[in-house]
Write a structure and sequence with these properties.
mainly alpha; Four Helix Bundle (Hemerythrin (Met), subunit A); two-stranded antiparallel sheet; 5% strand; Cyt_c_oxidase_su3-like_sf; cytochrome bo3 ubiquinol oxidase activity; Cyt_c/ubiquinol_Oxase_su3; transmembrane; transport
Amino acid sequence: MKQNVHGCLPMSDNTMTANANSTHDGQLEFLVKGDHHPQNGTLLGFWIYLMSDCLIFACLFATYGVLSRSYAGGPTGMELFDLSLIAVNTSLLLVSSITYGFAMLQMQANRVKGTMFWLAVTGLLGLGFLSLELYEFHHLIHVGAGPQTSGFWTAFFALVGTHGLHVFFGIVWLVTLLFQLKKHGLIQENKRRVFCLSMFWHFLDVVWVGVFTYVYLMGVLP
């Protein structure tokens, strides 16, 4: 019997031979070399993350559905929602999805500057979306429709605010990615990051379509 590398647990001679070879300086050289990470493991892990995010938004949509008529004598969505403002906001986010598609096309053509340009445009559209959303929140709170007003407004701010928070962190991720692209170019790691952010950004667009339909359009119905 021999001790392992750290001298803690005994190991048999057969086990030592099966897992490693001894070099001349007494160090162990493992027979299995190379990358031990599974192929496309990052993309699989990111898909799992997106599925967990789906569960979060599903819970928020369900909560809003339960509390969608709990006004507690306060203002309703039909009274305060400004659909023209929300339509502009929705257009900004949907167009940002198109510009991100242009960035993906530039990446496939190995054009660093083109990829960075369209990513920057996507980030600016995302900032425009967040600015209008913050303006809407400020206006609603100013007229007495804050999260504490009723169950309806609590569910509204929880759902829409969580989506806005996701957009904010998406923009932070996008800015970080721009710095990485400027420094390292379109290396394989950066291409994978651009692809993961693409899935995240399009996911937020899909969620927003649900918010726009279920919260705003149905919210103005009598």
